[in-house]
Design a protein that fits this description.
The complex is a heterotrimer of chains A (about 250), B (about 350) and C (about 280). Chain B is an all-alpha fold and about 350 residues long. Chain B is built from twelve helices and two strands; from the N terminus they run ααββαααααααααα. Chain B has a domain of about 240 residues: MetI-like fold (Orthogonal Bundle), CATH 1.10.3720.10. In chain B, helix 2 packs across helix 12 and helix 6 packs antiparallel against helix 9. Chain B starts with a helix and ends in a 9-residue tail after the last helix. With about 280 residues, chain C is mainly alpha-helical. Classes of the chains: A alpha/beta (about 250), B mainly alpha (about 350), C mainly alpha (about 280). Chains in contact: A-B, A-C, B-C. Chains B and C meet through helix 2, helix 3, helix 4, helix 5 and helix 6 of B and helix 1, helix 3, helix 4, helix 5 and helix 6 of C.
Chain lengths: ~250, ~350, ~280
């Protein structure tokens, strides 16, 4: 099952740019939390801090504490690799491995970590593809088709399956549908709806309807700061902050 | 603020709640134990760092070995080594001047022949020729670079030299003999033959780098010049060549570096006589050729040491030339290939 | 001003014509060399040439079998040194070398690429031959291996930088460690480009003669010991071309033909395989 995330006094920089400032936030286990806000407000950087992807960028820096379940993400004894195995991530643009078949893409997280049991791999691949609602479309040419030969929406679901296969506890989604057509988008949204029963989901989106449809909680970011964080319904009906209201009613951004 | 209106717009979709996938997601999760990777990561990083360090180490070793093995000659002759012309293994008197002269003259001759041709080819293939011909023409020019030096030498000895002796040299002597550059015996072999073969050998590198910098000139520059009513040639001269000149200069100097260090083909064609003669028909000798010819025969310690010092001089000259060229090309390409967009 | 326009248009045609002429003039030696090589080479080629070792001076007949095998041996040693070091350096530059040290390495590699091959020969002699007290295939392999490093490292770096960052992030996001990501994702995605670079560097050093002159020295007989003087195809061509014997000249042409066929075939093979994408499919 998913675990909760506690974020305390989180700050992140790109060189001299202070991209994320003093974030304090508790993400509830087995629910979906949406992060909304205008472009450049630090929402992507924020989620990339949760699985230590931020530090892969040259000159990037993070301060503060993040706890995934009981584990300190930035603790002394914690390795980034271990965190990323427990926290899956889906990126804005689908990024399947072009040199691998559909099967190998899904199995990649396990295979590249030295997992070799053929029969179990087969099972995990099928289950992950079923979970991501892609199984029926690819089952006939699992090992023949390259991951890159699928359509954009299929590729994104393949990436979700790939992330699910390592059995994470938390799933981070960085605008997973922004590069997709409406039909693929609705499939991805249905999927998120399913997944949140078993996973803690944090989804970044610039699409407010999407946040309202899939998430129980919504956080509004502006200029690197967390302005408001509450139940989705509350944020979209009676926001507590004027800036939130301005944003969701489309007055700026 | 009308709360109910917002609520209507953002109502969660109830249909999504009942999906047929509900049961497949209820698989109990199993823990997979995966090996820790921190050590492996650090090890990998240091292994790659070791490879990178070895590149530095190789260059340091080159300098060290050259100095180490030429100590004897460095002490015996000092700076005089660069300024005297005698090369007398029997009496142990060595000077590199004739070789430095031969190296510089043959390389400059090569540049004079190669540069206009290379720029012509680069211009033709990037700006003028039909699109279908571009690929094959560039491929053919690059094929010239794949021919080994020894084959250039072989071809030079058996094909180029007879042609020079029978047709080209009498012609040059008759019409341009008054310059003093084309006098004396017409052996075929000599400075001119070496210069020509060097020119053919450096044309591919000068052409390909020139082509690269020319195609890096933005199309807008070309269109801007065409729009004010320029002809094609004016567009190339003003819009392309002028913008690319630093890079082209770098390409030329890089070609010079290649020519200075070229060994085998030159050795087979230049005549191998340590003389400083005005005529391009006369035989000469280069730094690289004297090493190639005499190194394995040199038995005296001082003789060997003098040959290594020749190597040191050659290394120093090419190093200087290459650094200058590199800085010029780097000023355009910024040193490394640009990272592809994410 | 019709007069001035006439002049400008004339100049335009003249310069365009000159550029075309330059191209033809440059292709002339290419055609001449390849044509003559095929003409003389095929005529001189026979079964003995490929299977026999050289006859003593002055006797006709014999072949270059030992030199062909010797070249293979030397190139094998060179690849064992140059390929891993070159790819390793390229990986370092692309994946870790963002700082000032990376620039230093990059610059040094470019400098090393410009060092004349004969100077590399002196260094290999100084490092191997002097200590071993013997000319050897090993010394020649070291010289050629050193020459391969900068070529391979710079093209490997270039190919790795063309792999989109999002692929690395995808692997990291799955909890795949850096070393595994580099080996199984980044290098594998760039593999066709890197194989091309390796083959091109291989083709470049395969014809090198200068650095072998006083490292492997040459040998008239069979030799499979890496610590002994060894025959090499370019060396044999060089020696025979400078001899006064007609039969040796013929053999030099045959040797040159074999050498160029080996180089051109390996280059074209790479081009073909890469463009068909054999290395790109799944496993």
């Amino acid at each position: 099952m998913g675990v909760g995330i506690q974020v305390n006094q989180l700050n992140a920089w790109f060189g001299a740019t202070h991209a994320v400032q003093d974030i304090q936030m508790d993400v509830t286990a087995n629910h979906a939390t949406a992060i909304i806000g205008p472009s450049g407000c630090g929402k992507s950087t924020f989620v990339r801090c949760l699985n230590r992807m931020h530090e892969t960028i040259p000159n990037a820096r993070v301060e503060g504490t993040v706890k995934i379940g009981e584990t300190h993400v930035y603790g002394n004894g914690t390795s980034a690799v271990e965190i990323r195995r427990r926290v899956g991530m889906v990126f804005q643009k689908p990024n399947p491995f072009p040199t691998m078949s559909v099967y190998d893409n899904v199995a990649s997280g396990l295979k590249l970590n030295g997992y070799r049991n053929r029969r179990e791999l087969d099972e995990i691949v099928e289950r992950s593809l079923r979970q991501s609602a892609l199984w029926d479309e690819v089952k006939d040419h699992l090992k023949k088709k390259s991951g890159a030969s699928l359509s954009g929406g299929q590729q994104q679901r393949l990436c979700i399956a790939r992330a699910l296969a390592v059995e994470p506890e938390v799933m981070l989604m960085d605008e997973p549908a922004s590069a997709l057509d409406p039909i693929s988008t609705s499939k991805i949204e249905d999927l998120i709806f399913e997944l949140k029963q078993n996973y803690t989901i944090v989804i970044v989106t610039h699409n407010m309807q999407q946040a309202a449809r899939v998430a129980e909680f919504t956080a509004f970011f502006l200029s690197g700061k967390l302005i408001e964080f509450d139940k989705t319904e509350k944020i979209f009906t009676t926001p507590g902050d004027k800036r939130t209201e301005d944003y969701i009613t489309g007055r700026f951004g | 603020m009308n709360g109910s209106l917002l609520k209507a717009r953002y109502q969660p979709d109830p249909a999504a709640a009942s999906s047929p996938l509900a049961e497949t997601t209820q698989v109990p999760r199993r823990k997979i134990h995966l090996k820790s990777s921190r050590l492996a990561d650090a090890g990998f990083r240091y292994l790659m760092l070791g490879c990178a360090l070895s590149v530095l180490a190789i260059v340091v070793l080159i300098v060290r070995e050259l100095f180490l093995r030429s100590t004897l000659s460095l002490h015996a002759f000092g700076l005089k080594f660069l300024m005297t012309q005698s090369w007398d293994p029997v009496n142990g008197d060595f000077g590199a001047l004739a070789f430095i002269y031969g190296t510089l003259v043959s390389s400059l001759l090569a540049l004079i022949l190669a540069v206009p041709l290379s720029i012509g080819v680069a211009t033709f293939t990037t700006e003028l020729c039909p699109r279908i011909l571009r690929g094959p023409l560039s491929y053919m020019v690059e094929l010239l670079a794949a021919i080994p030096s020894v084959i250039y030498g072989l071809w030079g000895v058996f094909v180029l030299v007879p042609i020079l002796r029978q047709y080209v040299q009498p012609f040059l002597a008759k019409y341009f003999g008054w310059t003093g550059l084309f006098g004396g015996y017409q052996f075929g072999i000599g400075m001119l033959a070496a210069g020509i073969i060097l020119a053919v050998m450096i044309i591919p590198i000068v052409t390909s780098i020139t082509r690269e910098v020319m195609s890096a000139v933005p199309t807008a520059q070309r269109e801007g010049v065409l729009a004010i009513g320029a002809t094609r040639w004016e567009m190339i001269r003003v819009g392309v060549l002028r913008n690319a000149r630093t890079g082209i200069m770098g390409a030329i100097i890089l070609g010079l570096g290649r020519a200075l260090g070229e060994t085998i083909a030159v050795t087979m064609l230049i005549g191998n006589r340590p003389e400083i003669a005005k005529s391009l028909f006369a035989p000469g000798y280069t730094l690289a050729s004297v090493i190639a010819n005499e190194f394995s025969e040199a038995t005296e310690d001082l003789y060997l040491s003098a040959l290594v010092e020749i190597g040191l001089v050659l290394f120093a000259i090419t190093l200087l030339v290459n650094i200058v060229a590199q800085l010029m090309v780097w000023s355009i390409t910024r040193g490394s290939a640009r990272r592809a967009a994410v | 001003m019709p007069n001035q326009y006439w002049w400008r248009s004339f100049k335009d045609k003249l310069m365009v014509g000159l550029a075309g002429m330059a191209t033809l003039l440059v292709l002339l030696p290419l055609v001449a060399i390849f044509g003559y090589l095929v003409y003389r080479g095929i005529g001189a080629l026979n079964w003995n040439f490929l299977t026999k070792i050289p006859k003593p001076v002055g006797e006709s007949g014999g072949g270059m079998a030992n030199a062909i095998v010797g070249s293979g041996l030397i190139l094998l040693i060179a690849s064992l040194i140059g390929v891993p070091m070159g790819i390793g350096t390229g990986v370092y530059l692309a994946e870790f070398g963002k700082k000032r040290f990376g620039y230093l390495v990059r610059f040094t590699a470019d400098v090393l690429n410009g060092v004349p091959s004969i100077v590399i020969g002196i260094v290999a002699w100084s490092l191997v031959v002097v200590y071993q007290r013997n000319f050897s295939a090993l010394a020649g392999g070291v010289a050629l291996g050193i020459m391969m490093v900068p070529v391979i490292s710079r093209s490997t770096e270039e190919m790795l930088l063309m792999v989109p960052q999002s692929l690395r992030e995808a692997a990291w996001g799955l909890g795949v460690p850096q070393w595994r990501t580099t080996l199984s994702i980044t290098l594998r995605t760039a593999s066709s480009g890197i194989i091309t670079a390796v083959m091109l560097s291989f083709a470049r050093v395969a014809g090198e003669t200068a650095p072998l002159l006083f490292t492997t020295l040459g040998n008239q007989f069979w030799n499979f010991n890496v610590r002994r003087p060894t025959a090499a195809l370019p060396l044999q061509i060089y020696t025979y071309a400078q001899s006064p014997y007609d039969d040796w000249h013929r053999q030099a042409w045959a040797g040159a033909f074999i050498l160029i066929v080996m180089i051109v075939v390996s280059m074209s093979l790479v081009r073909m395989v890469v463009s068909r994408g054999v290395f790109k499919g799944g496993n």
